[in-house]
Structures are given as C-alpha cells and as structure tokens.
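User: Can you recover a sequence for this backbone? Please restate the input before giving your answer.

Assistant: Of course. Working from this structure:
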C-alpha cells in the first residue's frame, strides 16, 4: 500500500506541469511523498519509496516521449513503451539516491524533510550534466505559468525547485499540521504577490525596437521529408515570409531544419529566401563540414550571403545520434531525426552570434533551451533565439512543457526570447517571461512582433546558483551539528 501511495503521489506531483499547469498539485504530491518518506524505517525503504514516487512523476511528465516513435510507427512504434519506461525508471534513480541520502543525513521528520529539499535539488542539478544531461521537468517548472516563476530571476531553476520541495516539507513534516500548512500557504501567497508586482512593472520604451517576424509553417513531420511534399512546405515558408505588412521586419525567423536542403551549394536558394524576406533571415538547416554533419542555425543577409552559423552542441540521444552507434546500427536501430546523410556531430562554435540589429544573440536549437547551465556559460546576450521542431513531440504535453521551460530561461537572464517552432508554439517572450505574442500549436501563419529590450542582469545572471549552494551547505551543516549534539 505504501508503494502505491508513493506512485500516486508522483502522478499528482506531475500534474503541476503543462498542459494541466496546476502547481498546487506538485506541492501536494511532494507533501504526500515526504509524509511517507519521513515515516520510513530504513534507508533501503527510503530509497525504494523515492524511486517509486519518481517513476510515477516521470511517467506522466515524460509521456510525450512516445510521440517521436509514432511518427513512423511501422519502423519505430515498438520502441515507444520501452523508451518511456526506461527513461522514467532511469531518471527515477536520481531521486531514489536523494531520498536515501536525506534519510541517512536526517534524524527526524523535520530534519529529513529539510535534507530532502537539499538532496533532491542536488539530484536535479546532476540531471543537467550526467550522460550528456537531460534536465526536463524540474519540479520548479510547475510555477512557470504563475507569478511565482519570477523568483527564478533570483534563485534560478534549482532554487525554485528547492523552495517547492521545502514548502511541501513544511506542509507535513512538523508536529502540528495546521502550523506547517499556514506557513506554506502564507509563503506561496507572498511569493505570488511579489511576483505579480514584478510582472506589473512595465517601462515604456519610446525608442523604436527591431521588428521580428516568426514563421510557423506547420509542416507535418511524417510528410516533411517526403519528396512529394518538400517543395510544398518550402513554398509555404516563402509565402508567409513574403507577406506584405506596414513595416518590413528587420529579422525573419524560421524553425529548426526549416530548410530541407543542405547549406553548401545552395546559393540560389538562399538568395530566394532573402528576397522573400527583404531583410535578414535566421533559420534552421543541415550543413556538412569535412565528414561531419551538423544541425545548424544560419543567418543570411539581405543578399543571401551567410553571415553567421551556429551548430547545435547538445544533441538528442537516439534522436540525432546513437550512443554505441556502430553496434546498434547492426541491429537496425538508427536515430529518429537522421536519414541517409548519417548522424549529427556536436558543434563547437560559440553560442552567442551576431544578428543585426539585435547584435549579441544566444542561439538555441531545440532542447538546448532546457539546459540552464548553457545560458550562463556564454557572453551575456541582448536576446535569445530558439528554433525548434516540436512536431516530434506530438500535441499532448511535450510542446507545452518545452515552451514553458524555454520561457524560464528568459526570466532567469532577464533577456527576451524569440522562439520559432515548426508546428508551434512560436512566441516572443520578454525578460520577465511575459508572452508578447504567440502562434498556437498546430497553426500555420506568421507573427510580427516588436522586440522588447533586455533587462539589467538578474541576480541569477550574476551569481548563478552560488547563493543556493551556500544555503544548502548551511542546512546540511546545521542538521549534522544537531545530530552530533543529540548523540552526545
């Protein structure tokens, strides 16, 4: 029964994420899990309970993972359930370790609850880096559609995760339930109020800002590379790009691999795109360099000349490349997003590129936007451009979660985000995470938006997670000291 409760608690906690977007459910789910956790009688039980809770959480958060395998069901459909179960079970190992460590460090309900907030946050930090990293679905992202998300500008995504788990711990770990519940509710209410005030603070900029056009072709992924449909989708992109407006856009942005031809030897095609835009174009395309194939973002000027190139650095395992590729290729397993041209190679170019008139732009391709460490490892940009093809993710939850996580990057840096997605969601988001304009999922069209200005560097932009690390060390040190005193 205890394991069943933990599994259900994980499912409830996952409901906080898009598309349901009910962060209270995340707090409640964690509160139930923590209540069960602090009552465990051994480290082994704590480990097992943590794994089951996390498995329920990730099974729901990652349910969209079956969608890429159903694009070509006869070829890849059989892999879908195994991919979901393996991913959920593998990610759950991080949380299982956190539950076990917190049980070993703590010595009572309150200390173990506080320790779990630290160890689970540490586990989520590890997910950013271990085995190339996959930090999808941090608990703190459940607040992305609420004013509470504004605190990511101060404490970052891990800090928001820490505070979420700490709030759940306060809810149940104390001796008197009503005291913990009151503290939790008042804390969330205060955070909501402060976040609302931040979002309401708008400063009108009298200076004319660059105009950006987002083009969303809504190309069906199952048909996108079909020779009978390639030109139809390309013509759709050109037509949307060339649509007349009162003010011609300074920059036009196409999605990831919007161009189905290779960059090399395509001068006429590039000139055609530039002529349709009447200005600068940023778009996704594949390119060859020596024997390597790259998933790239290219910037072309008004004459079609290539001004900048960024090659995707964070590649999707089993999508854009295959670990142990030589061995698995003999079994007939190939990357979902690769074809006869072969697997992609990771890029090595700087992610901050020059795109006039925005100047410094942080380039992000697809799921690179979920890596909070990547946005702080570069020169501070004036804007971020994310190009993606979320058609791979279906319509159930993947595109919504992907958009919300990208939106968090804007809040963390205080830098506006331009996002162009093949089937949506395409949008421009300002430095406080406010959506200035968007094209909905599954729609075809274009959107002209005047770019908001970047904000001053946020606390997170300046110091990253260092303040959170200091707090975590203090909490663990205090628990250890108190444990030592009690034993004496």
């Amino acid at each position: 029964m205890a394991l069943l409760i933990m599994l259900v608690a994980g499912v409830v906690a996952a409901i906080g994420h898009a598309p349901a977007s009910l962060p209270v459910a995340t707090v409640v789910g964690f509160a139930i899990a923590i209540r069960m956790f602090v009552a465990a009688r051994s480290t082994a039980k704590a480990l097992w309970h943590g794994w089951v809770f996390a498995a329920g959480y990730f099974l729901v958060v990652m349910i969209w993972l079956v969608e890429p395998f159903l694009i070509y069901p006869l070829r890849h459909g059989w892999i879908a359930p195994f991919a979901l179960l393996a991913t959920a079970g593998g990610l759950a190992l991080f949380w299982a370790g956190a539950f076990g460590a917190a049980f070993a460090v703590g010595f009572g309900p309150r200390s173990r609850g506080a320790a779990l907030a630290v160890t689970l946050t540490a586990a989520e930090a590890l997910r950013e880096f271990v085995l190339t990293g996959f930090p999808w679905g941090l608990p703190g992202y459940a607040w992305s559609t609420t004013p509470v998300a504004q605190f990511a500008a101060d404490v970052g995504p891990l800090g928001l995760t820490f505070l979420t788990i700490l709030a759940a711990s306060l809810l149940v770990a104390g001796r008197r339930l009503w005291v913990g519940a009151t503290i939790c509710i008042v804390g969330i209410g205060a955070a909501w109020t402060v976040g609302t005030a931040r979002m309401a603070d708008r400063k009108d900029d009298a200076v004319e800002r660059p105009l950006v056009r987002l083009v969303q072709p809504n190309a069906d992924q199952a048909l996108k590379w079909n020779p009978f449909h390639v030109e139809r989708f390309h013509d759709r992109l050109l037509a949307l790009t060339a649509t007349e407006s009162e003010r011609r856009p300074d920059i036009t942005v196409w999605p990831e691999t919007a161009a189905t031809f290779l960059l090399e030897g395509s001068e006429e095609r590039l000139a055609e795109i530039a002529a349709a835009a009447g200005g600068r174009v940023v778009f996704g395309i594949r390119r060859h360099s020596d024997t390597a194939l790259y998933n790239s973002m290219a910037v072309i000027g008004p004459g079609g000349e290539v001004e900048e190139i960024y090659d995707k650095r964070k590649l999707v395992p089993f999508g854009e490349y295959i670990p142990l590729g030589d061995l698995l290729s003999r079994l007939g397993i190939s990357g979902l997003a690769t074809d006869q041209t072969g697997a992609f190679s990771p890029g090595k170019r700087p992610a901050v590129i020059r795109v006039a008139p925005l100047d410094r732009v942080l380039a992000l391709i697809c799921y690179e936007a979920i890596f909070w460490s990547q946005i702080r490892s570069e020169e501070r940009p004036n804007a971020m451009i994310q190009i993606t093809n979320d058609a791979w993710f279906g319509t159930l939850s993947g595109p919504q979660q992907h958009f919300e996580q990208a939106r968090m990057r804007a809040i963390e840096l205080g830098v506006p985000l331009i996002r162009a997605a093949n089937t949506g969601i395409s949008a421009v988001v300002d430095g406080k995470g406010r959506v200035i304009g968007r094209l909905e999922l599954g729609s075809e069209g274009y959107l002209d938006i005047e770019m908001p200005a970047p904000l001053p560097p946020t606390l997170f932009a300046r110091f990253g997670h260092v303040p959170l690390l200091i707090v975590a060390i203090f909490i663990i040190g205090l628990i250890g000291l108190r444990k030592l005193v009690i034993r004496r």
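That completes the design. The chain is about 45% helix and 15% strand.
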